[in-house]
Amino acid sequence: MATPGPLTDDAGLSATKRQLMEKWLAGGGRPQTPTIPRRARAHTADLSFAQERLWFLAQLHPGNPYHNMVEAIRLRGPLDRTALRRALERIIARHEALRTVFEVHEGEPRQVILDHQPLALDTGTRFLDEERTVELLRAESQRPFDLTRGPLIRFHLAPLGPDEHVLMVTMHHLVGDGMSMGILLRELYTFYEAATAGREPFGVTELAVQYADFAEWQRETLRGEELRKRLDHWCAVLHEPLPGLDRLADRPRRGPSSLQAVSRSFSLDASVSAKLRALARDHQATLFMALLAGFTTLMHRRTGGDDIVTGSVVHGRDQPELENVIGFFANTLALRTDFSGSPAFTEVLERVRLTCLEAYAHRDTPIEILAAELRPGRNGGDNPLFQAAVVGEAPAGAARMGDLDVGPFDFGLDTSEFDLVLHYWESDGRVEGGVRGSADLFDPESVDRLTAELEHLFAVVVEHPGQPVATLALTTTPESAYAPAPEAASAVPDSEPPASGPPGGDGDSGCSLTPTEREVAAVWREVLGQRDIDPHEDFFEIGGHSLRAVRVLLRLRERLGVDLPVQAFFEAPTVSALAAVFDRARGGAAHASDPGEDTAALLADAVLDPEISCRHSVPHDAARLAAPEEILLTGATSFLGAHLLARLLAVTEARVHCLVDADGSGEAERALNRALNRYRLEVPTDRVAVVPGSLREPRLGLSPIAFARLAGTIDVIHHAGCEAGLAEPYARLRAANAGGTTEVLRLAARERVKPVHYVSSPGVLLHRGTEPRVLREDGRVHADSVLPSGYVRSRWVAEELVDAGRKLGLPVSVYRPGRLAGDSVTGAGDPASAFWQFIRACAELEAVPDFGPDTDFDLVPVDYVAAALVELSLRPAALGGTYHLAHPVRTRFDAVIQRLRATGYRLTGTDPDQWTRLVAADVLASGTGGDEASLPVAALTGASHGMPGFGSLRLDTTGTLTALAGATVHCPVVDGALLDRYLDHLIGTGLLPPPSGHGTSGTPRSENRI
Question: What pTM was computed for the model?
Answer without folding.
Answer: 0.59
